[in-house]
Every structure is written in structure tokens, then in C-alpha cells.
Amino acid sequence: MAYPDLYLLIDGQRLSGGGRRTHKVVNPATGAALADLPLADAADLDAALAAAQRGFDRWRESTPHERATVLQGAARLMVERQEELARIATLEQGKTLAEARIEVMMNVGLFNFYAGEVFRLYGRALVRPAGQRSTVTKEPVGPVAAFAPWNFPLGNPGRKLGAPIAAGCSVILKAAEETPASALAIVQCLIDAGLPGDVAQAVFGVPDEVSRHLLASPVIRKMSFTGSTSVGKHLAKLAAEDCKRTTMELGGHGPVLVFADADMDKALDTLVAGKYRNAGQVCVSPTRFIIESAAYDRFLTGFIERAKAVRVGDGAATDSVMGPMANARRLDAMDRLIGDAVAKGARLQTGGERIGNAGFFFTPTVLAAVPTDAAIMNEEPFGPVALINSYADEAAMIAEANRLPYGLAAYVWTSDAARQRRVARTIEAGMVGINTAMIGGSDSPFGGVRWSGHGAEDGPEGIDACLVTKAVHEG
Ligand code: NAD
Prior knowledge:
This protein has about 475 residues and is an alpha/beta fold. It has 14 helices and 24 strands. α13 (about 415-425) links the parallel β20 and β21. α4 packs parallel to α5 (about 155-165) and α9 (about 265-275) crosses α10.
């Protein structure tokens, strides 16, 4: 399949050339260049800001029916274009086509959910004596600057666009320069479904330049960012300069507590698939496997066996289970983190190597007995590495789960109902899976606590994060 043309989408216009700087987009399965992406300059960003203000002035007045029609129309187009969208995502990001198709359907579910939610943006009337009236209403926060990373090239833009559009906001989306065609294709579905071109725009650029420019503008009233904790902290400071509202979806270091009474085959099948999904480049990836000592040997042996059986290959090939890593930076990170862990005493049980010279392939990796002072036990690995350690009892397992300042997703595997509730309550995380790896859904808030960020996307909470509250009192 041909890779599409790339451009900036500002005020409904496709812009490229004109002496703009460019970024080379590559196929992670081969390392070959796909296309040159034009990068926005200051004048482009100013044009996008002016359009976003006009788009907001117009879209805040739209009816729930108009918003629902656009969201449902875009969802229908995504279903029709599922194969084309999935192929673009696989070409530029590397994940398997099966995973990319699921991403399309996640957007479809989310947009349809929001199409219903727009009719439920209720306020309330307070109890007052006759002749007085007090109401509380919800209003769209204003133009949103949204920054989406490359790991879910279709799903992240969908999340960044769906909620603000449902709430009546306009959006300037800066998706990752590594995966621009997927983001453009999602915006195009909205525009083809009738969304005015000043309500949703897509820009690309030098990330720090773009975020500084947009966040310095009083036009932007909210920032939504998904990415690493370090970049998130930096952007939160920039947003604070103008007291802008923020939603921050940052990194994680997913603890997985497995007790000896768990259904071990189900746990292993689920967790191995979850670990190597998108080559581990998932913020809710299961990462620190915290195993009760009585089950340790059985769990480790079963995990290694299954990890060795994961077929790695071009995401576009039908028999690949795990594609390449998305970029060369992740390969370097794997070498550094695994090398450091082994030097500090971890046992490399399988994997730990790059595969071939073309593309960014890495073997599914298992490290056992990883010391707490290894960098990989503290830094989000964002790669296909499972860290499997043994702990004496529940108290030690919970202490390890809560040791890090991250709090995104946590997983608990046990058949003891009382323990399920106890552990779920004690773990610091935004999302907890009990005997499951499914911790998201269009109707359910997705977000973390502490260094994993604040605010949520998806669910009613996702729209609420794009609304402000106004109380009006009449005497
Ligand atoms: P990175 O932190 O440099 O970039 C992550 C994302 O943030 C990219 O999409 C990038 O374009 C964007 N970004 C970076 N600096 C920015 C800035 N100043 N303004 C606006 N956007 C900016 O790292 P990376 O090498 O692309 O990814 C590596 C790390 O990022 C991973 O280890 C992981 O921790 C994190 N990450 C997290 C998620 C997530 O879903 N939470 C997704 C992708 C990457």
C-alpha cells in the first residue's frame, strides 16, 4: 500500500513545502524512509491559533445533535476505512495489523460513546425561594492544545479529539512526528463527517517549539498531553504560567501481583500477550511481575516458554505476533536498561538482543531476580521486557507495588475474593485489573495518579475534563 502525502492541516487547508523544515518518517520494520513531513513554523502556529479561536466561537454554539452527528459520522467512516487506517498505522509505527485494527475500533467505540454523552452534559438548578434562581451549568473550556505520542498512532489522536469535540471545544492536535499519517487520517474522518476545519487542526513540528508557542498563547485554555513523565512535568510548568487546565497521561511501571492461588495458565496466557503487545510500548504494560514465592518457579518457567514462542516480524505479515520497536531510540534504551540490570546481578532468561540489521526488531525478553537498584526497576522500560521477582508474602508484594511514584495500571491475580478487594484498595493506581488485563473501555476513565499524571480520558470523566462549571445566581 502506498504511504499517503503528509501536510499540516490548518483551518481546513493542507499545507506543505514553502521552504518549511521537514522530518523524515520511516518504516520501523525496514528502516526505509516513507515520506518527508513538513514542520510548522511560527506563522503556521499563529494561523492555527487564530483558526482555533474562530472554531471555538462557532463550535461552542453547536447543538448536541450536531456534535453527535459528526462523532457518529466519523465513527462510521473509520469502520469503512478500517483496513486503510490500520495499514497506515502499521507502516509508520510497526505494530501488527491485528493490533492496529483494534485501535480503529477503540476510536469507533469512543466516538459513539461520546455521541451519546453530548446529550447528558447536565447542569442543575439549586433550591431557592420564589423569585430567586441559581443554576450551575457546564461550558466548554475553550481551544485545546493536544499532544499525542506515537505508540497508539490512531487511538491517541482519537482520544485527544473525541472528548473536546463532544464538549464543544476546538483542538490543535500535535501528534507525534513519527506517526503523522495516522493522525491526519483520523482528523480527516471528522472533517469528512462535517466538522468545520477550524474546529480540529493537525500540526507537526519541533515538539518543544510547538508546545512553547501554543502554551504561551492566551487562546489555548487547556493542554492535554500523553507521553513521558519528564516531558509532562516540563509541559505542566509551561501550562501553569497561564493557569491553563491540564490533563496529563504520563508513564507507568505496571506492577503485576500474582498469588499462588491464581489460575496460573490463564494468568500466563493473558500476561504474556499483554507484555509483548505493541512490543511493550504501552503505558499500561504489565512490567514488574511481583510473584508470591510459592508460585515463583512455575510462573517464571511458564512465562519464559511462552515468551520464546512469540513470533517477531513485520507487523504487516499475517503471522507476526510482535512487530519491531517504533524507533531506534527504544533499541538503545533496551540495550542500556538490560545491560545495566545484568551488570547489577539480574538473570537474563531469554531475549535481550536486537534482531537483524534492518528495522528496529528486539527479542521478547525476560529478566529474573532483578535488583531494586537496577535502572529498569525504576524507569519505565517501554519495551518488550518482563521483570520477574519473588516476594515472601502479600505485605512485601504490596510494598513493592507501591514503591515507585508511578500509579497508572496495576494487575492482581488471585482467586481469594477478600484479597482481591484488599489489594485493589491498597494499591496506588488509577486502574486495577483483577484476573484480567482489560483495564479500559470507552465508558471507563483512563488515567493515573502521582507521576502517572492527573485527569482522565474516556468515560464521562473524559468530557468533564473539557468543561468548566459556571454558577449563576439571580436575586
Ligand atoms: P519523549 O518523552 O521525548 O516523547 C514522548 C512524546 O512526547 C512524543 O510523542 C514526543 O513528540 C512528545 N514530546 C517530547 N517533547 C515534547 C515537548 N517539549 N512538547 C510537546 N511534546 C513533546 O520520548 P520518546 O523517545 O518519544 O518516548 C520514550 C518515552 O516516552 C518512553 O520511555 C515512555 O516513558 C514515554 N511515552 C509514554 C507514552 C504513554 O502512552 N504514556 C507514549 C509514548 C512515549
